[in-house]
Amino acid sequence: MLDVRRPLARLGHNFIEGVWRVGTMARFFGMVIASSGTSFSRFRLVMREVYFSGVLSLVIIIVSGLFVGMVLGLQGFQTLQRYGATESIGVLVALSLTRELGPVVAALLFASRAGSAITAEIGLMKTTEQLTAMDMMAVSPMARVIAPRFWGGIISMPVLSLLFSAMGVFGGYIVGVVLIGVDNGAFWSQMQAAVDFKGDVVNGMIKSVVFGLAVTVIATFEGYNAPPTAEGVSGATTRTVVTSALMVLALDLVLTAFMLSGQD
Amino acid sequence: MPSDNLVEVESVSFAYDRRPILKNISLKVPRGKVVAIMGASGSGKTTLLRLIGGQIRPTAGTIRVAGRDVQGLDELALYGLRRHMSMLFQFGALFTDLTVFENVAFPLREHTSLPEPMVRDLVLMKLEAVGMRGAHRLKPAELSGGMARRVALARAVVLDPALVMYDEPFAGLDPIAMAVIGQLVRKLNDALGATSIVVTHDVGESLQIVDYLYFISEGAIVGEGTPDEVRGSSLPYVRQFVRGEIEGPVAFHYPARPYAADVGLAAGADA
Fold this sequence. Notes:
The complex is a heterodimer.
Chain A: H1 5-34, H2 37-41, H3 43-54, H4 58-82, H5 89-127, H6 130-136, H7 141-180, H8 184-194, H9 197-224, H10 230-263
Chain B: E1 5-16, E2 19-30, E3 34-38, H1 45-52, E4 60-65, E5 68-69, H2 75-82, E6 85-88, H3 100-111, H4 116-129, H5 145-157, E7 163-167, H6 175-192, E8 195-200, H7 203-209, E9 212-217, E10 220-225, H8 227-231, H9 236-243, H10 259-262, H11 265-270
Parallel strand pairs in B: 3-8, 3-9, 6-7, 7-8
Antiparallel strand pairs in B: 1-2, 1-4, 4-5, 9-10
Helix pairs in contact in B: 3-4, 3-5, 4-5, 5-6, 6-7
C-alpha cells in the first residue's frame, strides 16, 4: 500500500523550510539596514561596490540593450506596417523599454552578472574564514562586507536600467530610421509626445530600484548563509540567479498592477 | 587586583544540537605564557578557541578573559574585548582582494585614525618582524602557505593584542616554515608581552616553544603539564599522543559492530 505519510511529511518539511527561509531573509534584511551606518560614513566602500556591480556590468547591459532595441524595432515595424503606422515605431520601442523591458531585463542580467558574483564572493569569504577573521578583529562583516554591496547594488540598478533603455531606444533608431527608413522627425516627436516622464520613466525607475533591492538582498543573503563548502557556494550561486529571476518577474507583476491602477 | 591568569575556563561544556563537543573543561592561561591545547582532529580544540573568542557560547560553565565573562557580553562589549585579542586562523584567512600591506593595515584602518605615514611604518615594522616586508605589494594568492601564515601573524599582532590565539598554526607546513612560525609565536609573545594559546596537534614543534600544555580527547582534558612533565608522562593518552603510537586509548578503528558480524561469519556460526 502506498504510504502517503512520506510525501506529506516532505511537503510539510519543505513548507516549513520555505517559511523559515523567508523569515531569516527578512531578519537579514533588517540587520543589513541596521548595519548601514558604516556604508554612509565611509561612502567609498559603497563606491567600490558600485564599480564591481555596476561599472563591470556595463558591457553586458549596453550590448544587450542595443540588441533588444533592434529586435523590438524589427518586430515593431513588421506589425505596425500592417496598420500603416510605422512612424509609431519609436513610441513602441520607448514604451516597451521604459515601462517593462528596461527594468526587467536589466535586473535579470544584473542578477546573472553581479548577483551571482556577490554570492560567490561572500560565500568564498565565508568558506575561507575571512568573515570570521573580520568578526574576530571586532569588525562587523555585516557592516563592512554586506551593507556596502547591498547599497552598491541599489545605486547601480536604476542607472543600469536607464542605460539599457537608452541603448534600446538607440537600437530601435538604428533599425527603424537608419536601416528601414522611417522618418527621423516622426520617430522622435511621436516618442516625445507619447512617453510620459512620470508615468513611464519614473515608474520604470521605481521598478528598477525595487528589483535592485530584491536581487542584492537575495545575493548577499545566499552568500552569507552558504554552507562553507565548494558545493555549498555553487548551490548558493545557482539559488541567487533562480530566486532573483523569479522574484523580479513576480514583483514586476505586482508593481505593474499597482502602477496601472494608480493611472486610472 | 587583576588575576594572574588572562584566560580562565571553568567547568565549560558545549554541544552542537545534542551532540556534546566539550565536557566540563577547566583550564587557566597565565599572563605572558604560551599555552598549547593539544589533541587529535575532532577532539574539540578549535571549539574551545571559538568559545574563548566569544564566537559561540557555552552550554554550561564560564569563560573569563581579562576578568570579564565572555558569554555574558553583548555584541558591543564583545567587540570591545576583541580589540585586545586576535586570532591566527588555520589557513591565514587573509582578505584575498587586498594586498599583503592592506591586509596588515586593515585592523589599523578600522580601529584607529592614525595618519597614513604612521600606518605605513607600523605595517612595515610588523611585516619586517615576520620577514615579509619585501612582499608587501603582493596579493595573498601569490604567497605560499607558510608565507600567508606569516602575513596573517603580522596582521594578528598589528594592534599589539594582549591575547593571541593560534588555530593549528603548523598545519600543512614544511619543516622550515613550521620552525619559522614556531619561533615567531614564541618571540612575538615575549616581545609584545602578550599571552598566547596555541591549538595544535603538532607535538615536536609545540614542546619546543610552549610553557604549558593541555591535552584534550573526546571533549575532556585528559592530561596537562610543562613540556618536561609531558615528555616523561605515564598517562596513557599523553604517552600515545606524544610518541605517535597506534595502540593506546585512542582506537585505530572507527566505532563499528563486530567485524565477524559484518562479514557474515557470526551468522554462519549461528546457523
